[in-house]
């Protein structure tokens, strides 16, 4: 049990979340002073908690980014210690690298945009993080040989940065701007079509219209703009005259296309939409519900909007109502409809405790009821880091180890989402099972590694109760039994691997069902930095053999991972002559596959035996002759000190070849 995370600390987190989530322009100074009083500006630990709460707030209060950014700047200016000051700024910037991993996480870049315009970051800092992020995704996809389907995510990162920071990028790094813009045009991704169609107008307005979109998500005069501002008269005018005159809002005509009005029409994807819940084609009444646009919601309801429709991923109207958090809309909806499935879960995820309490009282919601894909309220509070509702669940004696249909507990949910405060609360509970497994035998620690939650891994690795060597049993036809370290090595998570190796409890040579160690994985999947890191650890068996007697060197040659081969051969512990189950050594397989660069690296090794024979008595030289591999043969024959004529007289294969 983490004795430092007491009931008092839990209440402090609840107070902090309340302050940040409800910040407005008038309360920034007051909230900043309160944070100073609570000690949040005086230590790395407390400052990290504040940063994490800010991260949660920008996700679940997407339309309050400006005030949250003002708060962040106010906090920055009030920090007296220069080390802490730099740490705070660095961590806010690192959100862009660590958090913006999902193509729908626009809320993070929107927050960065707000901070930039407040003067929190310089031009150079912004450009640096954009270039770093773009290169990071390019390197990741190239290293993992990802298919063209992953091209979408990689380039979406660059495209979104360009949309938000077009003026800066065009002025300061025009070549990068032009290249990314052309890639965006070629991609044909619908999320960016509106941006591209209006780019000329953005530039003609000296980017003023672009900044309006970045601030308010949509172009003035569109149906989205009208509804989010709860402009009922504008909605009626749009209904009767779809060619709504944009001139009353901005300088150009034709900016708003002639869109036929339909009471069930859907909101199209737009890059500046920072609320993830609105990115999957919601209907306009769902859109109104989330924005708390009471007049528009009521009007659309009375006009016959289909309240049974869901968005494209199955979110229903009651869930949009709960996520929006408007009690008037909830009350109106409740009088006319009775489907509230999953509404309590969305109220929890979006930090609307009052909505949850209303649903419990008036709709007899059972907080332990599990909803498909959502789990229970305990799961949702853990996944969203909603500490007040998580504490409420504790007070109601909810089962803290309750599982979803996939076997995931609330601890899994917190670990997967990187919600460290929720994780600490759960681990502090006397009934918690810290190594609970899901249907694939994955533990919360395994989830933290899989989802690359570095801070969670760092926290859990210190907890003696956590089984860091527990393997999964995930596999469609064959159970693999791979550990968290296997996964980190395979995915190239250098930072995660380095954290795991700090533990004296780790079995660094754990073999999966195929006998493969983490070093096998890193070697096979061409994770050079991870291979280097593993080789620095004396516990690593560089010559470990899998079930086919294949060493990491052998599998790296099979994949033609030349740099990995070179790195492994540089170790004084390497034995490059270990044969596999049929007597093939790494040199044999290099010859068999014709991997010339690997062969060249092997013969440089002082440990290599070029005369070694497989179970059929063939040396690598004879094998190259048999296969007709001229390049390999020419390389190998120069190593033989005997006269080739003498060798060929005793070997029919070689004699025929020569």
Automatic annotation (TrEMBL):
Pfam families according to UniProt: Ank, Ank_2, Ank_4
Signal sequence bounds: none
PROSITE patterns: ANK_REP_REGION, ANK_REPEAT
Gene3D superfamilies linked: Ankyrin repeat-containing domain
UniProt repeat feature ANK, residue ranges: 280-312, 406-429, 514-547
Entry keyword set: ANK repeat, Repeat
Stored PANTHER family: ANKYRIN REPEAT AND PROTEIN KINASE DOMAIN-CONTAINING PROTEIN, ANKYRIN REPEAT-CONTAINING PROTEIN-RELATED
Protein name stated in the entry: DUF3447 domain-containing protein
């Amino acid at each position: 049990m983490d004795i430092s995370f007491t009931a008092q600390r839990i209440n402090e987190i609840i107070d902090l979340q309340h302050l940040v989530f409800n910040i407005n322009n008038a309360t920034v100074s007051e909230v900043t002073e309160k944070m100073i009083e609570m000690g949040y500006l005086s230590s790395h630990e407390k400052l990290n908690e504040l940063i994490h709460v800010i991260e949660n707030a920008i996700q679940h209060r997407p339309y309050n980014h400006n005030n949250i950014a003002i708060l962040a700047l106010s906090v920055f200016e009030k920090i007296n210690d220069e080390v802490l000051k730099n740490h705070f700024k660095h961590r806010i910037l690192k959100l862009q690298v660590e958090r913006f991993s999902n193509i729908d996480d626009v809320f993070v870049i929107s927050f960065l945009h707000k901070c930039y315009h407040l003067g929190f970051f310089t031009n150079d800092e912004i450009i640096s993080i954009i270039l770093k992020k773009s290169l990071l995704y390019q390197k990741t996809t190239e290293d993992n040989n990802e298919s063209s389907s992953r091209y979408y995510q990689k380039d979406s990162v660059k495209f979104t940065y360009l949309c938000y920071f077009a003026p800066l990028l065009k002025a300061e790094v025009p070549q990068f701007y032009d290249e990314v813009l052309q890639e965006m045009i070629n991609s044909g991704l619908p999320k960016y079509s509106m941006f591209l169609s209006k780019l000329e107008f953005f530039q003609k307005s000296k980017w003023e219209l672009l900044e309006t979109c970045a601030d308010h998500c949509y172009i003035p005069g569109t149906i989205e703009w009208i509804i989010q501002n709860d402009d009922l008269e504008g909605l009626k005018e749009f209904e009767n005259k779809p060619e709504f005159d944009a001139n009353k809002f901005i300088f150009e005509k034709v900016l708003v296309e002639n869109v036929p009005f339909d009471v069930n029409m859907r909101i199209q994807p737009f890059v500046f939409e920072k609320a993830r819940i609105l990115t999957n084609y919601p209907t306009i009444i769902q859109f109104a519900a989330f924005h708390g646009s009471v007049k528009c919601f009521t009007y659309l309801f009375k006009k016959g909007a289909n309240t049974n429709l869901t968005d494209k991923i199955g979110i229903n109207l009651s869930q949009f109502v709960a996520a929006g958090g408007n009690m008037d809309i909830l009350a109106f909806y409740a009088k006319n409809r009775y489907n509230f499935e999953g509404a309590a879960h969305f109220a929890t995820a979006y930090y609307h405790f009052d909505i949850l309490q209303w649903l419990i009282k008036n709709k007899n919601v059972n907080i332990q009821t599990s909803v498909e894909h959502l789990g229970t309220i305990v799961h949702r509070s853990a996944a969203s880091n909603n500490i007040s509702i998580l504490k409420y669940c504790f007070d109601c004696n909810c089962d803290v180890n309750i599982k979803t249909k996939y076997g995931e507990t609330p601890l899994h949910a917190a670990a997967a989402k990187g919600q460290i405060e929720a994780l600490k609360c759960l681990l502090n509970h006397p009934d918690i099972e810290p190594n609970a497994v899901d249907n694939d035998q994955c533990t919360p620690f395994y989830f933290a590694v899989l989802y690359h939650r570095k801070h969670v891994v760092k926290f859990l690795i210190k907890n003696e109760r956590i089984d860091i060597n527990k393997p999964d049993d995930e596999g469609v036809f064959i159970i693999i039994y791979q550990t968290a370290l296997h996964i980190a090595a395979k995915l190239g998570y250098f930072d995660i691997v380095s954290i795991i190796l700090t533990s004296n409890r780790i079995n660094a040579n754990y073999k999966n069902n195929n006998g493969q160690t983490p070093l096998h994985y890193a070697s096979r999947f061409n994770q050079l930095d991870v291979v280097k890191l593993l080789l620095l650890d004396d516990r690593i068996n560089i010559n470990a053999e899998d079930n086919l007697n294949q060493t990491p060197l052998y599998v790296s040659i099979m994949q033609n991972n030349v740099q990995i081969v070179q790195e492994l051969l540089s170790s004084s512990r390497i034995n490059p002559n270990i044969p596999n189950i049929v007597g093939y050594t790494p040199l044999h397989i290099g010859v068999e596959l014709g991997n010339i660069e690997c062969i060249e690296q092997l013969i440089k090794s002082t440990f290599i035996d070029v005369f070694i024979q497989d179970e059929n008595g063939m040396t690598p030289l004879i094998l190259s002759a048999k296969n007709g591999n001229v390049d390999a043969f020419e390389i190998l024959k120069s190593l033989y000190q005997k006269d080739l004529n003498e060798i060929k007289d005793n070997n029919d294969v070689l004699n025929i070849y020569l």
